[in-house]
Amino acid sequence: MIALEHVSLVRGNRTLVRDATCALRPGALTVMLGANGAGKTSLVRLMSGELEPNRGRVTCSCKSLAQHSRTALARCRAVVSQHTSTPFAFRALDLVLLGRLPHSRFPSVADFAIAREAMEQAGVTEFAERKVDTLSGGERQRVHLARALAQLHEARSTGRGLLLLDEPTAHLDLAHQRHALDLARTIASEGLTVLAVLHDVNLAATYADEALLMKDGCIHAIGPAREVLTLARLRETLRVELEEIPRANGPSVFVPTRTTAA
Amino acid sequence: MKSIGSIASETTADLATAAQRSVPDRWLLPGLGILLGAVILASLGIGAVPISPGQVLSILLAPLGIDLPWTFTDREAAVLFHIRAPRVAAGLLTGASLALGGVLMQALFRNPLAEPALIGVSSGAAMAAAALTVLGPLFLSQLGIPVTYLLPIVAFLGGWAVTAIVVRIAHCWGRIRVDHLLLAGIAMNAMAGAAIGVLMLIANDAQLREVAFWSFGSLGRADWTIIPILLVLTLPIFLFAKRYAPWFNALLLGEGEAALLGVPVEGLKRASILLTCIAIGGAVAFTGLIGFVGLVVPHVIRLISGPDHRRLVPASALLGAALLPLADLLSRTVAAPIELPIGLVTALLGAPFFLYLLLREQRREGT
Q1: ipTM score of the complex?
Q2: Which end of chain B is more exposed for a tag (fewer CB within 10 A), N or C?
Q3: Which of B1, B15, B308 is closest, CB to CB, to A94?
């Protein structure tokens, strides 16, 4: 559904993304890995249309992003960003309801129901009446995930849509990391294109259908997770010494060794 | 996954309990409406010529052919129609303008300290008005144009000019950078303040008093001719803020997030600045600088019913509309026959009440 063709992003004299070409597979969970500053968030923002490329083009359903109307795009594409804060605290339910904004400017009873359903799926129903600024980082992250689900409600029933998750597991405990990625897989299984930026190699290997490795603003590798997440590639992209521990039933486990590579 | 049907029934129950629990929300708008009505009745009735609320109603309804049992004299009717009513109407419209300007600017800047003066419109108008008051007589006396009629026009244009400069500076790569808008606004406000200071140094005593009085605001010059103008300048910001309230909610998440939810962020920012400039420029041009209302009114409403703009916009407009005639009433009765500048009253009245709400909120969060 979403594809990048020779996309570059330059800000000042820094090239954040260099000549990126890739297409994400609908119905699959693609996991993006890369070191800090490798251009992962920039790539997500290019795919969401938040940033426009300096060269190349980003297409959605074979049409350039700029050709889609803002609202039409917002109805089938949701993003959970790394950092989101509000100066005046909403109730969590009101925040989730904002996900319905592209569909109806003033929420109806049906929109409330959709928001409730999204909160239930993201496991945040108990926070509905709490103010967002009283929630912990992880709880807030999950409320934003619920907002994205509310936004994609229609897209999920048609099976056409895009969910971009920028470090969705960053503040979450292990159980909720698993829950969030299970949810991402569920959404992918409904036919949507799902991209998640992760730092945990093993979580990536466990959940990803496809993997995308970023290094120095370039797409280092993209393809089926089994083929991409190899010891050699991960060492090179993440610039870290890793040890691979094979497992009989599932992908290998990667463990960092004590000394870092030069 | 639960079906929408089963969740819908739960949600209806949710809505019902939510309605029960949030009694302040339900009573907010009617309560503010009652407050506004009471303030209007009091402002029309209280003064050197006292008119009872019953008489006020009699006088107001008499032209419609409705006779009420309260009798009144022609003099009372004249005082009410020609002196007090335009003043109350001007206060109502100015108060609503200031409050709505505050709502829009706090959403635009995503900053609780933002107020309509931040984009330079008020200081620009004040500077232009001071310049005309002090320097005007030098040029205009030869032309025979009285300064009084020119003042609102020049103030309005001054506000526009300074805001245009601020926006131009903050404009880069096809978008308005809100952080630069804030800083440019602060710098331009400081420059305008300095310019007013210089003008006051060279002003004579009468001009000095005029500039000083103007910079604390007054509704004393209000007459019926300015009401339609104020109405035309205020109505757009109200209709706009009300119609696009959900977009302002999204804007609170940040410009990037709002754009991802389909909000045309640049257009929304430009329209907000333009309409604030029109409404506040008009208000300041006719009434001078009235501080605090634009900053405090939105916060008071937020503390009562949360940050949702769908409630915040109409409630702030009502509270602003009630607050300013009330402040005006106090300004002309507390030390009568001397009239205090209304800006002093809004600060003296608003600041302690605001601090009380703030402390109450802290206590509530502590429990």
Answers
A1: 0.89
A2: C
A3: B308
